[in-house]
Amino acid sequence: MKQLLLGYLPAEKDLWEGELANNRLRYAELKRELLLNPVKSLLVDFLYFQSEAEADSFECFVQLLSGSVDHFCQQLDNSSVGIHSTLLHFSELLKANDGELWRHLDASKVC
Questions:
Q1: CA-CA distance, 75 to 94, in Å (whole number)?
Q2: Measured between alpha carbons, how far is 42 from 39 in angstroms, rounded to an integer?
Q3: What's residue 95's pLDDT?
Q4: Using CA atoms, how far apart are residues 111 and 108, in angstroms rounded to an integer?
Q5: Is residue 49 part of a domain?
Q6: In total, how many domains does the chain have?
Q7: If you ran DSSP here, which 8-state letter would residue 14 be given?
């Protein structure tokens, strides 16, 4: 019943067997593909995502800073809740979690 409610099966019961057979076939093909050549399957995804990495990184940065809009108040700039403190905190988090990227940004005078 839950497969029907989740949309895994068509509403007509007479089509269930065909849908289940197709799903089993697709699962077997995927399993065979991943077991026979896992590197190829993963490399294709990696190369695709690598080409989108800059745009994805920028989107993450925008989302991260979107919650900091209230911090852009000149009177608060140097306070513990101001933008300088927030960016310093982000820099420390980046340094702790991705030292290579932090060193690159630091050498580029970005952070």
A1: 26
A2: 5
A3: 92
A4: 8
A5: no
A6: 2
A7: G
pTM over 0.90: no
Asked if 90 and 67 count as a contact pair (C-beta separation under 8 A), the reply is no
Most confident of 17-21, 44-48, 75-79: 17-21
Do 68 and 77 meet the contact criterion of CB atoms below 8 Å apart?
no
Residue 46 lies in a domain: no
Residue 74: which domain range? 56-107
Q: Are residues 94 and 60 in the same domain?
A: yes
Tens of pLDDT, residue by residue over 19-35, are 888 888 988 888 887 77
Query: What is the chain's alpha carbon radius of gyration, rounded to the nearest angstrom?
Result: 24
Mean pLDDT comparison of 32-41, 54-63, 77-86, highest-scoring range: 54-63
Rounded-to-integer distance, Cα 75 and Cα 18, Å? 67
- How many residues in the chain? 111
